[in-house]
Structure prediction request, 539 residues.
Amino acid sequence: MKSKIQLLFLLCIFFFSNCQYQESTHKYDRVPLSGNQVSSPLVSPKKLMPPTEKPNREGYDKITENDFQNSIDHPLSTFSIDVDNASYSNVRRFLTAGEQVPTDAVRIEELINYFSYQYPQPEGEAPFSTHAEVSDCPWNDAHRLLKIGLQGRTIPQENIPASNIVFLLDVSGSMGNYNKLPLLKSAFRMLIKELRPMDKVAIVVYAGASGLVLPATSGDDKQTILRALDRLESGGSTAGASGIKLAYKVAHQNFIKGGNNRIILATDGDFNVGPSSDSELIRLVENQRESGVFLSVLGFGSGNLQDDMMEKISNHGNGNYAYIDNIKEAKKVLVEEMSGTLFTIAKDVKLQVEFNPAQVKEYRLIGYENRILAAEDFNDDKKDAGDLGAGHSVTALYEIIPTSSKSPSRAGTVDPLKYQQKSLVEEAYSKEMLTLKLRYKLPNASESKLLEYTAIDRGKTLEESSVDFQFAAAVATFGMLLRDSKHRGEANWELVNHLGRKGMGSDPFGYRREFLQLARIAGGGNPVEVVDDVLAPAH
Prediction:
């Protein structure tokens, strides 16, 4: 009898303990999980292993570097302008993190155009001025370097028309990292503070679905806009295409005739719900750009950055693409340069250079690989090209082998033509090195205007060249070394530092000084502090 009582007692204890365990289990199941918690209540948080690092899913388009072209067989070089500068800040992100820079993340024209240059303001009716300078090529003594610059007219902020802006913000789960949605919020707060009473802002967000968080609100009501921004949290998948459609709908509902109508998309670029292929998204924004609503893109974050997609849709949406890696870059893009971003002064801007074979044996355009146009596209007003904002500048470099040079040919050859003979006309024997033609449209026009200039090589040496010429050459050299370009010649990191110091100029915002630090890191050295054009070890 005693043993039966003991057995019954033990069974009661077991039953009670099991009930307590089940209650405990259900209690944990009811607790919402944060990103650092696990679903099983049997695992102690102290014993959890750190999460494994996610594989790098960043996407970059392959860049095939421009080769030299024979000026007799290929006298015309045609391309669209590019005012994007995302590549530079993205490269900076890799270098400051001590990581290898992906070759295809380096778009040399965007590195060069990250910086402003002292080009003169336009004086005539054209919305931009044109500048050309020829000097020694720093990485090949037998070659020459041509710099072409455009400078958009600067317009005071008070004279810029009213803006109808739609913030299209990615709040999907992939945006939860500190350098994504939190940085995005800090960046847009700065832009909101710059809004004028005549401006209006709406906020559209997308994750698993898209929605209107804030209807069009006057820039005078900054607190309402800021509160809507501050409430945003990340979570869910990424229905980017539906977000873009809704943003265009909201922009059209609040369209300002004669004003700046623009969507600013901020994302890491990971669209995975609904139409998400590059071609589908490109068609989506192409169908909208003629309506007068332009699309600009801001990239955020690392490990998942879809750089290729974001660059394409901004190009086809008549906008620009920037990458924001820190709060300083956010200020540069959204405060210092926002007037130019919002107010387009010329669209579909194309350049066509005709080289004189009597002066130029071969040439190559440095960068702009994804902006090359067919020669026939230059006169085709239906062909889309880049847009220029108020105060923005555009710089392009050509490496040139003069006809007088004994440097061996760098271009490919073709067999002699059977039915044609090439002979130079009288103008070829002038001192003209080239003829530069530009086509552009005014923002609301459908027909382009034509400008035409000539340039002469006056034999200037590198030491005689302008400060801006030497700095642009430094950045081009930097890009070629990062890409391990087959055309880098005698380029090295000492040359980058030498040219960069010579091209320092006034540098009011410190961007050129920062470039020298990045060059030192890329070259395997320590960051430096620049004081009065003298490099000293940083403390």
Notes: The chain has two domains: 69-155+345-404+429-537, 157-342. Residues 13-54, 528-539 have pLDDT under 50 and may be disordered.
